[in-house]
Amino acid sequence: MPDAGMFAAADQITVAVHDLAVVLENDAEVEQALGLVAEAQKRAGV
User: How far, in Å, are 14, 25, 27 from residue 20 at the CA level?
Assistant: First the structure.
């Protein structure tokens, strides 16, 4: 069985993305969110 930690992280990401999709109100907010994700990926080395 794969490491359960991976599944926990995937579940947290799924919930966070769902919540984000619910609160974003327009294309500008989507673009801003995508920029923040891209910055976080660079900092994390992903």
Answer: 10, 10, 13
pTM of the full predicted structure?
0.57
pLDDT, one tens digit for every residue, the chain (46 residues): 466 777 788 888 889 888 988 999 999 999 998 898 899 889 988 7
Angle at 29 between CA 17 and CA 11, to 5 degrees: 5
Identify residue 14 by its one-letter amino acid code.
T
- CA–CA gap between residue 41 and residue 34 (Å, rounded): 11
Report d(CA 28, CA 16) in Å as an integer. Answer: 19
Q: How many CB atoms lie within 10 A of CB 37?
A: 13
